[in-house]
Structure formats: C-alpha cells, structure tokens
Amino acid sequence: MYEINGKTYPCCTSVTMGLIGGKWKTVILYHLMEGPLRYSELRRSMHTVTERTLSLQLKNLEEDGIVARKVYTIKPPLKVEYSLTNLGKTLIPLLIAIAEWGDQIVAKQGAIPKV
What we know:
The chain has six helices and five strands, in the order ββααβααββαα. It is an alpha+beta fold and about 120 residues long. It has a three-stranded antiparallel β-sheet. Strands 1-2 form a two-stranded antiparallel ribbon. Strand 4 and strand 5 (about 80-85) form a beta hairpin. The mean pLDDT is about 90.
C-alpha cells in the first residue's frame, strides 16, 4: 500500500492511474506535450469536453504537480497558460506509448476518424 497526498493506493499502477487516469487527463497531457497552451486552445482541441470538466481536470493535474498554471497579468486581457512540469514531462514516453497503442487499435479496427 502507498499513500500519496492523503490518498491510499494498493500498487504502483494504481498510483499512476490515480494521477493520470480518467477520460480527459491523458488527453490534456497529450496536448501539452508540444508546449504551453492557453485554456481556450485546450478547449478547442478537445471539442466534446465540458468547460467544467476541463477546469476540474486541470486543477487536479496542477494539485498533483503534473501541470503548471501561469497567469500573465502584465496587460489586459488576462492570459493563463498551462504547461507540463518537470514531473509531467516524465510522462511523455508513457503518453507517446498510449497514443501509439491507440493508433494500432484504430488501424486494426479500421476506424474512421470523426471530425
């Protein structure tokens, strides 16, 4: 058993899934691999996520030290960017492997991308 940030996990795999699991966290991280993005850019790249869900997932990722939130207040309008922290960047090989595995499944199933 492991305890991290007040949460108990039965194994290392559950730690990983507890931090990045769910429908949207890996998608957010995948989009942030290339560099910082504004909230609106993330929202546009993830058409079906609700604003509430995106906000909550970003907040959770920030609390877990995987995503950094930077607010620019120098001149209006207010600008907020999200980026991977050093810890978040260690997930890049895992995110690439997940994406490649998904590509294999899509190719095997002959799925047609929806836009």
